Amino acid sequence: MISGAGDGAAFSAMEATMANKYSFSTAALFPRSAAESLRLIAGAGFSHAELMPQCFAEAEERFASRAEKCGIHVASIHYPLAMFPMLYNAGESMVGEARRFGEGLVRLCRALDAKVLVIHPHEPAKDQAHAALLEAPVVGNLRALGEACAAAGLTLAIENSPKGPGRTPAGLLAYVDALGAGPASAPMVDTTEACEADEDPVAFIAKVRPCHTHLSDHAGEQKHIPAGEGAIDWRGVRDALRGCGYSGYYTLEPVYRHYLDRPEAALEKAYAFISGLIGSEA
Questions:
Q1: Nearest-CA neighbor of 25 among 155, 118, 122?
Q2: What is the pLDDT of residues 50-76, one digit of tens each?
Q3: DSSP letter string over 130-143?
Q4: Could you tell me which of 13, 37, 103, 111 has the fewest CB atoms within 10 Å of its CB?
């Protein structure tokens, strides 16, 4: 209950903070545990985070109770990279396990009030003569995940990739459409991945109209460096997102090597950058 002017001001400040959609990925704080990473992200001023589970325990529904004690809202979950061999697996004996694991991730999303589950495009079969055997089960896994997301009111965000069908705006849109993962599936944009594919992330965003973003910088051979430290036109990125009516989270996802030492200072710098960029009209 709000009691007194001081409490009212504090509540208003909290509301204003929660209203922003600045987020940071726990993937950038590897090899720390998800719980420790969430606490560090919260300590830097972020109200939201993207969870990248690093083990099965962090991907279970019951992990939500631990995450909620970290003082931050988990806004999105990235399908664990460590478990990609399950999702993109045509093995007859793995399909059932992959789908059960995906259903568990969806339950975790619901428990945390995370509205977005991130995946990558699969690699199309090179051997078309055996596509039904080697590719169809993988497509089935992705479609099943999309159906589970739709039933739970989540968005299945499909990220662009520097290789394969998601490397260009047209390719990513065509992939999402052809995949047939249902109404919950939508394209998202990773700024560094666009650069790696020799695409302009500003133009990529304008053409794709993403449902979700991963923001990191790029310069020459350096990729996934902290936003603001490379060659990407960040005002252009911001304006492109505004131009397409973007209402999702601004999720910073740099590579972890920049946060191995003194993560607190690096996270505070990241928060200052994204809040200054998105909060500015100039």
A1: 118
A2: 999 999 999 999 999 999 999 999 999
A3: GHHHHTHHHHHHHH
A4: 13
Residue linked to tokens 């601004």: 250
Cα angle 254, 122, 237 (rounded to 5 degrees) comes to 35
* pLDDT tens per residue across span 132-149: 777 899 999 999 999 999
Domains of the chain: 31-279 (3.20.20.150)
Task: Report the sign of the C-alpha dihedral through residues 160, 218, 252, 66, in that order.
Answer: positive
Is the separation of the CB atoms in 237 and 205 below 8 Å?
yes
Residue 215 buriedness (CB in 10 A; 0-12 / 13-18 / 19+): buried
pTM of the model: 0.91
- Tens of pLDDT, residues 202-217: 999 999 999 999 999 9
The C-alpha torsion from 39 through 241 and 206 to 180, rounded to 10°, is: 50
